[in-house]
What does this fold into?
Amino acid sequence: MSLNSMPLNSMPLKSVTQIIAAPPPHWVGDGFLVSPLFADHAFQNGISPFLMLDYAAPRQFKPSPKPPGVGVHPHKGFETVTIVYDGEVEHRDSAGNSGVIGPGDVQWMTAGRGILHEEFHSREAAKRGGVVSMAQLWVNLRAGDKSAAPGYQDIRNADIPRVQLEGGETRIIAGDHNGVKGPAKTFTRMNVWDIRLTAGGRAELPLFEGDPAILAVFSGAVAVNGEKLVGASHVVMFARGGNRIAIEAKEDSQLLLLSGEPIDEPIAAYGPFVMNTQNEIRQAMEEFRAGAMGVL
Ligand code: MN
It folds into this structure.
């Protein structure tokens, strides 16, 4: 039998290395009550190219003339990926980009050599009040890409392809699922897949041998690789070896699967800056103080 005709389910699974419970949530500004789901693994090479994942579970906000959120702040050396599930997020940055993203939309911002931005509930949605839920993923850049020009990709729900699963679907925000390609332009190869399964639904997901993989369970409960049962607000870490994972939903579940070519370079992270060395962090702070990251 040739390798090409080998069925997917005869290939090795990426084994589960750890299941992490989400730390308690904290407020980002007054708009986003987030749990940092990667916990102690954040800003470590074990989850490369990803740096951290904040998840804001659905939360009801009262109508307000003043949108809740977080005011002007800098970023440098990486990318922020904001996925809105409920409500609307309004963004404005020093590169001149602005936009309102709603349910299913994604904002992929490249901080690169430095940017200032602000992130609020949209003015209109704040006036109405209602439920807001979102995730923000930080994606690292290679040393040579940390000086890239700031960028902004406004990715609409309608432009994100869907792959049907048994009892659900996955939206391919970035990467490639058997030839179905996500719209996000990335500096390094990665998969960012937004997965919904109804109870009893199942998926066998093809990934690259050698890539770390992380499955965030936002809600519901899933069995992973036919053995480990994982509940809401947990993250599953997988070994780099193997080239697929298997998921079966025990309840209606909302998941985010992350996998990608690791960037095996030193990480120096301080607040909104992610560089390779402490000296570069000091430089970033000086650039910010000197106004070199632009004006907003
Ligand atoms: Mn930010």
About this structure: The chain has two helices and 24 strands. The chain has a mean pLDDT of 95.
